[in-house]
Amino acid sequence: MASEELARKLQSRLAATQEADPRPEPEQSPVRPKIMQEPEGACGDSSSELSAKLTRRLDISEGNAAPRPTRVFNPYTEFKEFSRKQIKDMEALFRRHDTGKDGFIDLMELKLMMEKLGAPQTHLGLKNMIKEVDEDFDGKLSFREFLLIFRRAAAGELQEESGLMALARLSEINVSTEGVMGAKDFFEAKMQALSVGSKFEAEIREEKEERKRQEVEKKQRQAAFKQLQSTFCS
Protein backbone atom coordinates (compact mmCIF):
# COMPACT_ATOMS: atom_id res chain seq x y z
CA MET A 1 0.00 0.00 0.00
CA ALA A 2 1.00 3.68 -0.36
CA SER A 3 1.87 4.05 3.34
CA GLU A 4 4.03 0.91 3.39
CA GLU A 5 5.79 1.93 0.18
CA LEU A 6 6.52 5.37 1.65
CA ALA A 7 7.92 3.75 4.81
CA ARG A 8 10.18 1.47 2.73
CA LYS A 9 11.50 4.48 0.80
CA LEU A 10 12.20 6.29 4.07
CA GLN A 11 14.08 3.25 5.45
CA SER A 12 16.13 3.03 2.26
CA ARG A 13 17.01 6.72 2.47
CA LEU A 14 18.06 6.49 6.10
CA ALA A 15 20.19 3.41 5.35
CA ALA A 16 22.03 5.30 2.62
CA THR A 17 22.61 8.19 5.05
CA GLN A 18 24.09 5.84 7.67
CA GLU A 19 26.54 4.37 5.13
CA ALA A 20 27.80 7.85 4.29
CA ASP A 21 28.08 8.94 7.95
CA PRO A 22 28.24 5.89 10.31
CA ARG A 23 26.47 6.51 13.60
CA PRO A 24 24.80 4.25 16.18
CA GLU A 25 21.57 2.96 14.71
CA PRO A 26 18.44 4.52 16.23
CA GLU A 27 15.80 2.30 17.75
CA GLN A 28 13.52 0.97 15.01
CA SER A 29 9.75 0.67 15.26
CA PRO A 30 8.10 -2.40 13.68
CA VAL A 31 5.76 -0.09 11.75
CA ARG A 32 7.95 2.82 10.70
CA PRO A 33 11.49 4.08 11.32
CA LYS A 34 12.28 6.61 13.99
CA ILE A 35 13.79 9.82 12.65
CA MET A 36 17.50 10.22 13.39
CA GLN A 37 18.35 13.16 15.63
CA GLU A 38 21.38 14.98 14.22
CA PRO A 39 23.41 17.60 16.13
CA GLU A 40 22.73 21.12 14.92
CA GLY A 41 25.06 22.05 12.05
CA ALA A 42 26.06 18.45 11.34
CA CYS A 43 26.55 17.24 7.81
CA GLY A 44 23.40 15.13 8.06
CA ASP A 45 21.10 18.17 8.31
CA SER A 46 19.90 17.91 4.72
CA SER A 47 19.06 14.22 5.02
CA SER A 48 17.30 14.83 8.35
CA GLU A 49 15.20 17.54 6.72
CA LEU A 50 14.29 15.16 3.91
CA SER A 51 13.41 12.47 6.45
CA ALA A 52 11.17 14.93 8.31
CA LYS A 53 9.36 15.84 5.09
CA LEU A 54 8.86 12.19 4.16
CA THR A 55 7.63 11.40 7.64
CA ARG A 56 5.13 14.27 7.57
CA ARG A 57 3.89 13.07 4.20
CA LEU A 58 3.43 9.63 5.72
CA ASP A 59 1.56 11.20 8.67
CA ILE A 60 -0.72 13.06 6.27
CA SER A 61 -1.49 9.89 4.31
CA GLU A 62 -2.34 8.10 7.58
CA GLY A 63 -4.37 11.00 8.92
CA ASN A 64 -2.03 11.59 11.89
CA ALA A 65 -0.50 14.92 10.86
CA ALA A 66 -0.94 17.81 13.27
CA PRO A 67 -2.46 20.91 11.59
CA ARG A 68 -0.03 23.67 10.73
CA PRO A 69 -0.62 27.08 12.34
CA THR A 70 -2.62 29.39 10.09
CA ARG A 71 -1.94 33.08 9.64
CA VAL A 72 -4.58 35.74 10.20
CA PHE A 73 -6.11 36.74 6.87
CA ASN A 74 -7.23 40.34 6.27
CA PRO A 75 -8.76 40.71 2.79
CA TYR A 76 -8.69 44.52 2.93
CA THR A 77 -4.91 44.70 3.36
CA GLU A 78 -3.98 41.75 1.13
CA PHE A 79 -6.31 42.59 -1.77
CA LYS A 80 -5.79 46.35 -1.95
CA GLU A 81 -6.67 46.45 -5.63
CA PHE A 82 -10.33 45.99 -4.67
CA SER A 83 -12.53 48.48 -2.84
CA ARG A 84 -14.16 47.64 0.47
CA LYS A 85 -17.53 47.38 -1.24
CA GLN A 86 -16.19 44.96 -3.85
CA ILE A 87 -14.68 42.74 -1.17
CA LYS A 88 -17.91 42.81 0.82
CA ASP A 89 -19.86 41.88 -2.32
CA MET A 90 -17.46 38.99 -2.96
CA GLU A 91 -17.82 37.86 0.65
CA ALA A 92 -21.62 37.97 0.39
CA LEU A 93 -21.44 35.89 -2.81
CA PHE A 94 -19.07 33.43 -1.14
CA ARG A 95 -21.26 33.05 1.97
CA ARG A 96 -24.41 32.63 -0.10
CA HIS A 97 -22.94 29.61 -1.89
CA ASP A 98 -21.17 28.19 1.20
CA THR A 99 -24.28 26.20 2.04
CA GLY A 100 -22.40 24.05 4.55
CA LYS A 101 -21.44 27.21 6.51
CA ASP A 102 -17.94 25.82 7.14
CA GLY A 103 -16.01 28.68 5.55
CA PHE A 104 -15.26 26.75 2.33
CA ILE A 105 -16.87 26.10 -1.04
CA ASP A 106 -16.40 22.43 -1.85
CA LEU A 107 -16.83 20.63 -5.16
CA MET A 108 -20.59 20.11 -4.82
CA GLU A 109 -21.20 23.69 -3.66
CA LEU A 110 -19.16 24.98 -6.61
CA LYS A 111 -21.21 22.77 -8.94
CA LEU A 112 -24.47 24.29 -7.68
CA MET A 113 -22.97 27.77 -7.81
CA MET A 114 -21.97 27.47 -11.46
CA GLU A 115 -25.39 26.05 -12.34
CA LYS A 116 -27.11 29.03 -10.70
CA LEU A 117 -24.82 31.40 -12.60
CA GLY A 118 -25.86 29.73 -15.83
CA ALA A 119 -22.47 28.21 -16.61
CA PRO A 120 -22.64 24.53 -15.54
CA GLN A 121 -19.34 22.64 -15.58
CA THR A 122 -18.36 19.00 -15.89
CA HIS A 123 -17.00 17.18 -12.86
CA LEU A 124 -13.48 17.42 -14.29
CA GLY A 125 -13.99 21.09 -15.11
CA LEU A 126 -15.02 21.82 -11.51
CA LYS A 127 -11.96 20.00 -10.16
CA ASN A 128 -9.72 22.00 -12.50
CA MET A 129 -11.34 25.24 -11.36
CA ILE A 130 -10.52 24.46 -7.73
CA LYS A 131 -7.05 23.18 -8.58
CA GLU A 132 -6.12 26.44 -10.34
CA VAL A 133 -6.38 28.52 -7.14
CA ASP A 134 -6.17 25.81 -4.44
CA GLU A 135 -2.97 26.92 -2.71
CA ASP A 136 -3.24 24.55 0.27
CA PHE A 137 -4.29 21.52 -1.82
CA ASP A 138 -7.33 20.71 0.33
CA GLY A 139 -9.67 20.30 -2.64
CA LYS A 140 -11.95 23.23 -1.78
CA LEU A 141 -12.03 27.02 -1.93
CA SER A 142 -11.40 29.24 1.09
CA PHE A 143 -12.52 32.89 0.93
CA ARG A 144 -8.94 33.95 0.20
CA GLU A 145 -8.70 31.49 -2.70
CA PHE A 146 -12.10 32.74 -3.89
CA LEU A 147 -10.71 36.29 -4.00
CA LEU A 148 -7.73 35.02 -6.00
CA ILE A 149 -10.16 34.19 -8.82
CA PHE A 150 -11.13 37.84 -9.16
CA ARG A 151 -7.54 39.03 -8.77
CA ARG A 152 -6.44 36.77 -11.60
CA ALA A 153 -9.42 37.85 -13.69
CA ALA A 154 -8.51 41.50 -13.15
CA ALA A 155 -4.89 40.80 -14.12
CA GLY A 156 -5.93 38.95 -17.28
CA GLU A 157 -4.35 35.71 -16.08
CA LEU A 158 -7.40 33.51 -16.75
CA GLN A 159 -8.19 31.86 -20.07
CA GLU A 160 -11.22 33.42 -21.73
CA GLU A 161 -13.15 30.13 -21.90
CA SER A 162 -12.17 28.83 -18.46
CA GLY A 163 -14.68 28.09 -15.74
CA LEU A 164 -13.04 30.62 -13.42
CA MET A 165 -13.43 33.40 -15.97
CA ALA A 166 -17.09 32.45 -16.35
CA LEU A 167 -17.49 32.66 -12.58
CA ALA A 168 -15.82 36.09 -12.46
CA ARG A 169 -17.81 37.43 -15.41
CA LEU A 170 -21.22 36.08 -14.39
CA SER A 171 -21.02 36.91 -10.69
CA GLU A 172 -23.26 39.69 -9.40
CA ILE A 173 -20.25 41.88 -8.57
CA ASN A 174 -20.05 43.50 -12.02
CA VAL A 175 -23.69 43.23 -13.13
CA SER A 176 -24.47 46.94 -12.67
CA THR A 177 -21.51 48.29 -14.69
CA GLU A 178 -22.22 50.14 -17.94
CA GLY A 179 -20.13 49.81 -21.05
CA VAL A 180 -17.74 47.33 -19.45
CA MET A 181 -17.38 43.86 -20.95
CA GLY A 182 -15.79 41.10 -18.86
CA ALA A 183 -14.28 40.97 -15.40
CA LYS A 184 -10.83 42.12 -16.56
CA ASP A 185 -12.07 45.42 -18.03
CA PHE A 186 -14.46 45.92 -15.14
CA PHE A 187 -11.80 45.71 -12.46
CA GLU A 188 -9.31 47.74 -14.50
CA ALA A 189 -11.87 50.54 -14.86
CA LYS A 190 -12.61 50.45 -11.16
CA MET A 191 -8.94 50.48 -10.17
CA GLN A 192 -8.17 53.42 -12.45
CA ALA A 193 -11.09 55.51 -11.18
CA LEU A 194 -9.66 56.19 -7.71
CA SER A 195 -6.43 55.52 -5.87
CA VAL A 196 -6.45 52.78 -3.25
CA GLY A 197 -5.95 55.20 -0.38
CA SER A 198 -8.71 57.63 -1.33
CA LYS A 199 -11.15 54.79 -1.96
CA PHE A 200 -10.67 53.34 1.49
CA GLU A 201 -10.83 56.72 3.18
CA ALA A 202 -14.03 57.67 1.38
CA GLU A 203 -15.71 54.35 2.10
CA ILE A 204 -14.75 54.36 5.77
CA ARG A 205 -16.04 57.94 6.09
CA GLU A 206 -19.33 56.98 4.43
CA GLU A 207 -19.74 54.01 6.75
CA LYS A 208 -19.16 56.21 9.81
CA GLU A 209 -21.64 58.82 8.58
CA GLU A 210 -24.23 56.12 7.94
CA ARG A 211 -23.80 54.73 11.47
CA LYS A 212 -24.16 58.24 12.93
CA ARG A 213 -27.33 58.83 10.92
CA GLN A 214 -28.81 55.54 12.10
CA GLU A 215 -27.92 56.39 15.70
CA VAL A 216 -29.61 59.81 15.44
CA GLU A 217 -32.74 58.25 13.96
CA LYS A 218 -32.80 55.67 16.73
CA LYS A 219 -32.58 58.38 19.44
CA GLN A 220 -35.33 60.37 17.74
CA ARG A 221 -37.60 57.32 17.67
CA GLN A 222 -36.89 56.62 21.35
CA ALA A 223 -37.61 60.24 22.28
CA ALA A 224 -40.87 60.23 20.32
CA PHE A 225 -41.93 56.98 21.97
CA LYS A 226 -41.20 58.35 25.46
CA GLN A 227 -43.14 61.52 24.70
CA LEU A 228 -46.11 59.49 23.45
CA GLN A 229 -45.90 57.21 26.49
CA SER A 230 -45.90 60.19 28.90
CA THR A 231 -48.93 61.64 27.14
CA PHE A 232 -50.97 58.50 27.71
CA CYS A 233 -49.77 58.08 31.28
CA SER A 234 -50.48 61.68 32.38
Automatic annotation (TrEMBL):
The keyword Metal-binding applies. Residues 1-50 are annotated as: Disordered. InterPro entries: EF-hand-dom_pair (IPR011992), EF_hand_dom (IPR002048), EFHD1/2 (IPR040365). It comes from the Eukaryota. It holds the Pfam family EF-hand_7. Residues 197-224 form a coiled coil. GO terms for molecular function: calcium ion binding. Gene3D superfamilies: EF-hand. This is EF-hand domain-containing protein. It comes from Anabas testudineus (Climbing perch).
